[in-house]
From TrEMBL:
Lineage: Archaea, Methanobacteriati, Methanobacteriota, Stenosarchaea group, Halobacteria
Source organism: Halorientalis regularis
Enzyme active site: Y102
Gene3D superfamilies linked to this entry: 3.40.1360.10, Winged helix-like DNA-binding domain superfamily/Winged helix DNA-binding domain
Single Gene Ontology MF annotation: DNA topoisomerase type II (double strand cut, ATP-hydrolyzing) activity
Protein's name according to its UniProt entry: Type 2 DNA topoisomerase 6 subunit A
Reactions the enzyme catalyzes: ATP-dependent breakage, passage and rejoining of double-stranded DNA
BP-aspect Gene Ontology terms: DNA replication; DNA topological change
Cited function: Relaxes both positive and negative superturns and exhibits a strong decatenase activity.
PANTHER family: MEIOTIC RECOMBINATION PROTEIN SPO11
Residues at which Mg(2+) binds: E200, D252
Pfam families: TOP6A-Spo11_Toprim, Topo_VI_alpha, TP6A_N
Length: 367
């Protein structure tokens, strides 16, 4: 059931798309070669926005121009997708990113068809940037991420079958409440939470729930399910901004997991145009820290060459240029080890909920 604000948002999104296509036609009419400029999406074009406390794209631009065959094909594909999205919004329907890739097979010009899903995904991101409209407002959604929430939170969710109220502990099973593609359809009604704990792995999420960590500490456990989907990051930001909850991030102790934290806190290169909407700059990293590997003598694996390269890259990454991260990363390079969240089980199945997390949260001033 759409609300008036939803309808207006959809109308605005459709208008923005049509205006974008009209720019191409205006360029033709003025005798100009059609072009589309977007920010260069590389680490070197990421800069810190002190007002928003997140990383955003800088001034470097890439131009798609019909002067070249490759550029002309990209603009052709963009116009076909714009037409599809405008029709989808007019009919109040939705589709997945995967469906869009296959739908292009029906485009009547072979040159407009996509060669891979990465190509169609990137085009949707391009259209988000140049139109200043999020893909959720295009009614485009990814495949289900399966990320969930468990904790003392009462919500009202808008669905096509109407509204429903759900308590994210009392009305769900052990799996928790599954985060919808567009978390802005959720209204927060009530909560007894003191903080949110974002957890990388399903195994650790299950351990926390089985041990009753969410109940004992009035905690909302958010399962990131690896690199978190946009919907997960958006909901996490809303928990912080609208409910005033501290956000903490608990991952494995390796460079790839530190980037998971970075995407929650500061945004990612791929979605830097949405950092203000998705990132939670106040999010704090709990661990596993390299210091924890040493202090608790955790079971470890040796760093691979790719791990070492990633850690060295992070020392140059603007998201990790703080005294804390430089100290931790340099320590990890020194000990040449990494550890998983589940390595805490070497000290017993209750160690993580009875000792590790309470001590870390207390030291961080969260509890």
């Amino acid at each position: 059931m759409s609300t008036d604000s939803d309808t207006q948002s959809e109308s605005d999104a459709r208008e923005q798309l049509i205006d974008l296509a009209a720019e191409f036609y205006d360029q033709f009419a003025d005798g100009e070669v059609p072009t589309m400029s977007i920010p260069t999406r590389t680490k070197s074009n990421i800069e810190y926005d002190e007002d928003m406390d997140v990383w955003v794209y800088g001034d470097r631009k890439s131009t798609r121009s019909a002067k070249t065959v490759s550029g002309a094909q990209k603009l052709l594909k963009a116009t076909y997708v714009i037409e599809f999205l405008a029709q989808q919004l007019e009919e109040d329907r939705s589709s997945t990113l995967r469906e869009l890739y296959y739908l292009s097979e029906s485009f009547d010009h072979e040159e407009a068809q996509f060669n891979s899903q990465d190509e169609s995904n990137q085009l949707i991101e391009d259209l988000e940037i140049v139109s200043d409209v999020r893909r959720e407002e295009f009614h485009m959604r990814p495949e289900e991420s399966g990320a969930t929430v468990m904790g003392p939170l009462l919500i009202r969710e808008q669905t096509r079958r109407g509204e429903r109220e759900i308590h994210c502990q009392e009305d769900v099973g052990e799996g928790g409440y599954q985060i919808p593609n567009n978390p802005d359809t959720i209204e927060f009604l009530d909560n007894d939470a003191d903080f949110a704990l974002c957890v990388e792995t399903g195994g650790m999420r299950d351990r926390l729930v089985e041990n009753g960590f969410d109940e004992e500490h009035n905690c909302i456990v958010v399962h990131l399910k690896g690199q978190p989907a946009r919907a997960t990051r958006r909901l996490t930001k809303r928990l912080h901004d609208e409910l005033g909850l501290p956000v903490t991030v608990f991952t494995d102790g390796d460079p790839w997991s530190y980037r998971i934290y970075g995407s929650v806190a500061y945004g990612s290169i791929k979605s830097a145009h949405l950092s203000e909407y998705l990132a939670t700059p106040d999010a704090q990293f709990i661990g596993i820290q390299p210091a924890d590997i040493v202090e608790y003598d955790l079971p470890t694996d040796p760093l691979s060459d790719s791990d070492v390269n990633a850690l060295e890259s992070e020392l140059e990454d603007p998201r990790f240029q703080t005294d804390y991260w430089e100290e931790q990363i340099e320590l990890q390079l020194d000990i040449e080890k990494k550890a998983e969240q589940q390595s805490l089980a070497a000290r017993g199945l209750d160690f993580v909920t009875d000792t590790y997390l309470p001590e870390r949260l207390d030291a961080m001033g969260v509890i």
